[in-house]
Amino acid sequence: MESTTQAVAVAAPNFLEVIVLFFQRGGPFMWVILAVWLFALAIALERFFKLAFKYDVNGPSFMNEIQRSILSQDLQGALRICAGSGALLAKVLGSGLKRANQSTAQMQNALDATALEVIPLAEARLSQLQLMANISTLLGLLGTIQGLIQSFESIASADPAQKQEVLSLGISTAMNTTFLGLIAAISIMVIHSYLHSKSEKIINEIDEFSVKLLDLLGTKKIKEERE
Predict the structure, then answer these.
(1) Angle 88-97/163-226 helices, nearest 10 degrees?
(2) CA-to-CA separations, 54 to 31, 93, 151, 199, in angstroms, rounded
(3) Contact at 8 Å (CB) between 53 and 202?
(4) Secondary structure class of 100 (helix, strand, coil)
(5) Distance, CA of 116 to CA of 6 (rounded, Å)
(6) What are the pLDDT digits (tens) for 90-121?
(7) Are 143 and 181 in contact (CB under 8 A)?
């Protein structure tokens, strides 16, 4: 009994062998889907690093620091806070602060121009992820169709007694590409959704706090003129 168990354990393929067999049975489209998947993951990794660590900042907290400096008549301190951060919001607010002594229209123009410059950085390559998800699904279906065509061609030349077995094996193999394509597409779509929400958060904070900064500087200027 013990020797039989050991024989089964030796004969059972490991995880790596199962994956290799899965790809071999799926045909050439499996490798194309894998390449698209890896390319999408590389884009996602770069976007995650930028959006989560480089471009993002705690907007309300950052704005509170700027506001305290402005109300304390420390405009240079506010500029240093912006210069010390690589976040997109800091870059936009910094451009407005540099024109704090100019007219409201000039401050607005500076904020708008910088916002138009940095917003594409937050949205960069997200559309490519969406495209990769669609391509993965379509490649999976295309590989399945190719596999079914090959299966039916094999049946034509197969022994009558083995036709059902050949057809079952062929259909099972053809489904591998659909399975991998869907797995790749679902994972890419989930990642895209997360990254898109990060991008939207950054853009919304730029819009919100640009208006608040403009209002703060405008109010401060009016008070100074009255005094």
Answers:
(1) 20
(2) 33, 16, 51, 12
(3) no
(4) coil
(5) 67
(6) 999 999 999 988 888 899 999 999 999 999 99
(7) yes
